[in-house]
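Components:
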Amino acid sequence: MRKFVLVLVVLSMIIAGLGIAKDTVVINLQAEPSRLNPIIYQDTETSMVLESIYAPLLDLTEDGDFTTEGAVTERFTISDDGLVYTFYIKQGIKFHNGDPLTARDVKFSYESFMDPDLGSPHNRYYAGIEEIVLVDDYTLEIHLKELDIAFLTLARLRGAVMPKDYIESVGWDEYERHPIGAGPYKFVRRVPAQSIELKRFEDYFGENAKIENVVFRYYPEMSTAIMAIRAGQVDFIGELPTDEFNALKRTAGDDLNFGTYERFEDHRVVFNKRPGEPFADVLVRQAVNYAIDRSEIIALTRPGMATPAVGRVPTFHPAHAADAPAYEVDLDKARELLIEAGYPDGFKTQIFAPSNHRERVLEVQQIQRQLARIGIEAEVVAVEWGTYLDVTADGEAPMFRERWSASAPEPISFIESWHSESSWNPIFGTYYNEEVDRLVDLIRVTIDTEERWELYREVQRIAMEDAVCVPLYYPLVGEAYNKDLYIPEDLWNPFKRPISAVHRWEWR
Amino acid sequence: MAGRKRSFWIRRIVRTLVTAFGVSLVAFLILHLTPGDPAKIMLGPYASEAAYEAIRERYHLNEPLPLQYLYWISGVFRGDLGDSIRYNRPVLELIKDRIGPTLALMGSALFISITLGIFLGIVAAIKRNTPIDYFATFQAVFWLSIPPFWLGILFLYIFGLQLRWVPIGGMVGFTSLIFPALTIGLRDEAWFARPMRAEMLEVLNQDYIKAVKAKGLKYSSVIVKHALRNALIPMITMIALRLPWVIGGSVVVEVVFSWGGLGSFLVSSVLARDYPVVQAILLLIAMLVVVANLVADLLYSVIDPRIRKES
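Structure:
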């Protein structure tokens, strides 16, 4: 009998041991996050951490529509003239320190982004706000100076409603060192140069996180991070470089999970269209478009991890212009256009790329070879980032290799630089087309979504007939994670992304 | 004699001060030698004009360069190295957090390289032109030929990923320290082993060694008491001069091993364009080199008075 009990005890211990669920997930960061301050930070690493700490004012669905699910807003209305946004805040939401979250905190958060003394690099997005009216503790009205269809896209507090009372009592400096939000995880500590630790917030207003602890660990060297995930020391590596992602899939494909999603981003070659430049001539720009082989470039730097671009807005978005001129490779046509433009023997020019982005330099070299086929001799100029910014903005680069990452869901920033009065216009080589100006203005005041998407498509068709740039590709993001980690399907989506909802991850 | 000694020391110290000034100038100019507008580089291209102006104001970027240098260097003397742009915290505070791991790594690496280097140097000299000597030479060349970056990854691959003896990267206890220290230490050991062998051989050929041998002294005490003591003198300078290389080597190794020290901090600060931090770390490392050189010279002159006369 005693023996039997002993066996039973041992057995139950073994079963209990097996049953202990892993309660921590380790997420790789390639660099140490900067300031854990929603209004200030500029690096992706910080955003990856803050997504778990804060609750957003509004969230996005898989289709890029605004939703109040998972957000602090119960419902919101926009007045018919598009000037007044009214937010009704959910009651009973608590910050990590136990303080209730009210409309006062939302108002405070907006004002913090607008406060010139706090110096948020985002404050220009909030410049259109005329006043913020606290109707009651749970109702807030935001009045705009003029109609702005991109207001909710650009001025959504970067997903962070901040605690007014706490910040006012401890000050911003202290707050940054111990941020408090109303999100599913609370900040525990920051180990200098090593990691940031979060713990499940038990009073979260949504569904509580499934995994208790989150550790963000920094691996500046990607090969080390990859060995760490293969050894099970790291559970998730986001935004892997394409070559690393493909290599890892080849070598450790059976031991890890992989996922991809599209990004709200496009890569292109920009022309300097100032008078006197060869690229001021639309025929030359079209010739270059016909000479550049997008699939060759994708095969070179992002095999399997990008789609050829047509226009500016990525394919998954309803404003994508599938029927805009795509300029499939046609060297004869390109040569004809050059002759017509008065360059029967081609010409010499330069193409710039920032030297700190290796794949962009490689691509530009490939473009150099492609342009040589039609007699254009393009010198590759790889320059340091600071120089690159100066040279391109000053109009000294005839062609340059750009990447544009837009805030979701409104794709306005992809096309607004085409407007002749946009501050971006001279930075991207200047462009003037009366019809484009009219359409961009119209987009800004068109409240009906479907109608607006059609205007986006129209403006891209016109600008691409003008061959305003050379669209290269829309990239895919590749991420690797532990075989036993479950990340819900709907998060593999450009509007959601796995990292935005770590609380829904699960150990299986 | 005393006067000459004093003038030697003064000359050395003056020369050091001049070097230190030059070094501080270079560290300061880093920000301005980089092409582009410093404020734009620090904040990125998309910040508001007000934010740029605030940065220019804060770092006196609108003042003439010599004045900017004075602001900066007077801050350094007050212990104010500025604030990190990336972290919004005093640079000194950030350096304090990270200097410990770097010193631990450098200390262990130096310990490995000095003990191993001197030991192998002595053995190779005593057993010269034997397989032992050849092996000592071979292993020295071997470690010297491997880039530390690659050696670090190889160590992690074998002992971290395949054998699972040590954690991969990070600073989790003593086991994390072993391989980064070996990666730097083994390479530097080669730097000490070869000169140590040469010194030993030279000393062993001296007449006084023959004399003590002839006196019938035990071989081990000939080596330790008479030969080693003299052979070690040049090694002091070797070690002091090698110090900056240990720091330099630790930059790459810290990144590979995710070691949270000053080296990886320097790299990430360069990438983040956090110029106040870059300037401070460069200044710190450069000053360390300058001081190490001075100490080497002075030590050498204390141990061997002939140096003073010749210079």
